[in-house]
Amino acid sequence: MPNKITLPKITVQASPDVAFIKYWGKKNEIERIPENGSISMILSGLHTTTTVEFSEKLSNDKIIINGKTADKETKRVTEHLDRIRNLARVTFKARVVSENNFPESTGLSSSSSGFAALTIAATLALALDLSEPELSILARQASGSACRCVCGGIVEWIRGETSSNSYAQTIFPADYWDLRDIVVVINSEKKKISSTAGHITARSSIFFETRQKNIQDKIEKMKKIIAKKDFASFGELLENECLEFHSILFTSQPPLIMWQAETLALFKEVMDMRNNGLPAYVTINTGHNVHIITLPKYQKDVMEKIKELNFVKKILLTKIGGKPVILDEHLF
Ligand code: PMV
Questions:
Q1: Which CATH superfamily is domain 180-320 in?
Q2: Where is the Mvd1 C-terminal domain (predicted)?
Q3: Is 289 in the pocket of ligand 1 (CB under 6 A)?
């Protein structure tokens, strides 16, 4: 009897990102084509490490996330593996082992790095030779923000009209601007509402149409400010976008209130720091943890002030990160 086929085992490490201009709402739910473009920075030092191995010996996909057999994520991962198997015209099942080095489901976007790493590892394991835009399009279908995390540096996701032109690309390399993101974990509790569910209700906010009318101008403005490295203007626009985004969440039906009391307390603390001459600005995703963006020369002082707050559980210091890396290719 012939030996059963096992393909190479590939390990890829990808970082999550934080959006300066947020993706919120989908024009096409199934293809995950967004209502608007977005801009983000990849977060160096935080990562998901994913190993994928396809084998004829497996009767089902086996998915292990952070040491445990995944239950609620299994369907989404298997559906993504199916997209990749269809492209490669194979039916082999896969073993996927994935680990995050940061708390998940707390607004730190583990799905962005997770599906970016899975897309690259699985396509390589099946010897598919895809370009970066092709990888981005594929990752987008599993998790919108993952399409940005196959790239490095500061990234723009161009909305696009159809699946084949909705993808992300690097607009500034990782070393272009030494921005620091101080990620403040106030609580490692998992959030109760997923982004996937929130995108669906985005249109129910009375502010949504106004946001859509202005968002492309905001994206262009953000790109110009980054090009000039004008930190004060960057920070003002970053916070304005964060508050606009959460206003959409607050006024959606049902309302989505992701913040906890400590989220607001920290936001105000950062505003106070600024009033006292310490430039730092806030952005918050669909979670309660807070990203504080500052420059290297202010980082130490900002961190000292935050450490004094008794509700702060953890501080993760990051800067702009690069593209995903292939850690290992085990050929046998
Ligand atoms: O990719 P998703 O479905 O997890 O949505 C991400 C939504 C935000 O993080 C709030 C914004 C963004 O652009 O990352």
A1: GHMP kinase, C-terminal domain (3.30.70.890)
A2: 182-309
A3: no
